[in-house]
Design brief:
360 residues, alpha/beta, two-stranded antiparallel ribbon, 12 helices, 11 strands, 12% strand
């Protein structure tokens, strides 16, 4: 396989393949995602309002059932707070709930999914608590940067961000309650938890400092924004170890976003010239796979081939998982998260590998 140049460009031979594959498949009637040998049972990457999603965990479970998903994972950022509620609703619906979490590591440019974790594991909970503390510290530093900007950005503090987040959640809960506010099931309960950058972005939009969430990131909060502060997250090895200690499997979320970063990059004091070097190091550290099947998007052939080659070197199977990265119908995360939660067909053999990994 050709080495990726600085982690910035796809191997040349795949550019044409990627562009032509959907059209050729449709023309020949060979869409692999619709073949009988596929399995649409899993969707393993979805957020609730316990992190930067827009919906309650109950709503996410209902949407999954409606879409035909049979095994759903809730993967809130650095939080397992909504898993009990999601499991309760999933049980009512006859849906399998795979407890999950999405851990932001290093400077927040890499996210690792922990799938099938024990949400009460002490090592995992300790790591997540540190992650929440890091987010609070990043928020303080971000607000300091805002105060020094020449733009007259409307000032607000941490308490105001939390109050706005709680009020927004209350409105979502009242709208989602099956019998309406105060109905038979009554309003749900929400703890505001850690502050994420979308929480800050929403207030910036509300105060007129940015026209929309995407602009709030471009102008202020994103990697090139005027008030950007990198997260001081755990090393990727630490997160992988904690996920394994909790009985889960560790998967790199949205790897193409990592691939698209500007390389060389430094993680945990080590310099990586390109994505390939980083992926190899993470696999050696115990990473179990890559998220590759997304809403109505084909997997990335060169990355899957790379995983096969690296897996052969390590004498183990590298997994490729499906997930919508659903954030809600008013999705407003820094990645403009998906607004649909779908049943995502994957090859039946890949689905069986995921089942075995989750059951080990």
């Amino acid at each position: 396989m050709r080495t990726v140049n600085g982690g910035r460009e796809r191997p040349g031979r795949w550019k044409v393949v990627l562009r032509l594959l959907p059209a050729v498949s449709a023309l020949l009637g060979l869409d692999a995602r619709a073949q009988p040998s596929s399995d649409a049972g899993f969707n393993l990457h979805n957020q609730t309002y316990c992190s930067d999603g827009a919906d309650t965990p109950e709503t996410v479970a209902r949407l999954a059932k409606k879409a035909g998903v049979r095994a759903l994972s809730i993967t809130d950022h650095d939080s397992v707070d909504c898993l009990d509620r999601a499991r309760s609703e999933a049980d009512k619906l006859g849906l399998r709930l795979i407890p999950g979490v999405e851990i932001s590591v290093e400077d927040d440019s890499i996210h690792i999914l922990g799938l099938g974790v024990d949400a009460k594991n002490s090592a995992l909970l300790s790591l997540l608590e540190k992650g929440r503390s890091s987010r609070i510290e990043r928020t303080r530093e971000t607000l300091k940067k805002f105060a020094s900007l020449p733009q007259k950005t409307p000032p607000f503090g941490i308490n105001e961000i939390l109050a706005h987040k709680s009020e927004r959640a209350r409105q979502v809960e009242e709208a989602a309650a099956p019998s309406g506010p105060g109905g038979e099931e009554g309003p749900l309960t929400f703890e505001p938890g850690a502050i994420s950058r979308p929480d800050i972005a929403r207030l910036l939009v509300l105060r007129g400092a940015a026209p929309d969430i995407r602009s709030a990131f471009d102008l202020f909060l994103g990697e090139t924004g005027a008030a950007h502060v990198p997260l001081k997250g755990p090393a990727f090895e630490t997160a992988i170890d904690a996920i394994h200690a909790a009985g889960g499997i560790a998967v790199m979320a949205h790897p193409y976003r990592v691939y698209s970063l500007r390389f060389p990059r430094s993680y945990s004091g080590r310099q990586f010239r390109n994505f390939n070097e980083l992926a190899w190091d993470m696999l050696k550290a115990g990473l179990d796979g890559f998220e590759q099947y997304k809403n109505r998007r084909s997997p990335t052939p060169w990355l899957m081939e790379m995983g096969r080659l690296y897996g052969a070197r390590l004498s183990r199977k590298v997994l490729y998982t499906p997930g919508s990265d659903y954030h809600g119908t008013d999705a407003s995360g820094d990645s403009s998260g998906e607004r649909e939660l779908l049943a995502i067909p994957i090859p039946a053999g890949e689905a069986e590998s995921i089942r075995r990994a989750l059951e080990e």
